[in-house]
Amino acid sequence: MNENSAAERSWRNQIVRFGLVGAVGFLVDAGALYAYLRLEPGHFYSGRAVSYVAAASVNWLLNANFTFGRVGGFGQWGRFLLFNLGGGAVNYGLYAALIATVPLAAQRPVLAVAAGAIAGFGVNFLVSRKFVFAGA
């Protein structure tokens, strides 16, 4: 097996695992948002900020262990949140736009959460691989 094939396989494995972790993160995100909205009905934006941090924290822990195999503690968690702000901004921006403009999204916020998560996926994978879990 040549070196390029191994690197390519590693890249593919990581992106699949990152996607699986993202699916778990989506469940945490949506679940935390709905829990928040039960306590604070109609607070879609502050609820999503809270749910995003919860999901990003779970994603960091799972990605560190399952996707990249590089657990680095609190500093790594902070870098993960910091470097994923770009994808997080795409994620939250699309969510907020859909909540504000699409009545179905306001009725079923899980749809807006899903759209945001998909939109931020690529950015988050690339920065996580290069800057947070470098060398994995």
How large is the share of residues in beta strands?
Answer: under 5%
Q: What share of the residues lie within helices? A: over 70%
Outline, from the CA principal axes?
elongated
Q: How many DSSP helices?
A: 6
Structural class: mainly alpha
What is the ordering of alpha helices and beta strands?
A: HHHHHH
Main β sheet profile? none
Number of strands: 0
How many separate domains?
1
Q: Determine the N-to-C terminus distance.
A: 19 Å
What value does the Rg take, in angstroms? 16 Å
In quaternary terms, these chains amount to single chain
Low-pLDDT windows of residues: none
Average predicted confidence as pLDDT: 93
Brief synopsis:
By secondary structure, this protein is mainly alpha-helical.
Structural account:
The structure is a single chain. This protein is mainly α. It has one domain. The chain is built from 6 helices and no strands. The chain has helices spanning 3-39, 44-67, 73-83, 85-101, 103-107, 109-132. Helix 2 crosses helix 3. The longest helix is centred in the first third of the chain and has 37 residues, at 3-39. It is elongated. 31% of the residues are buried.
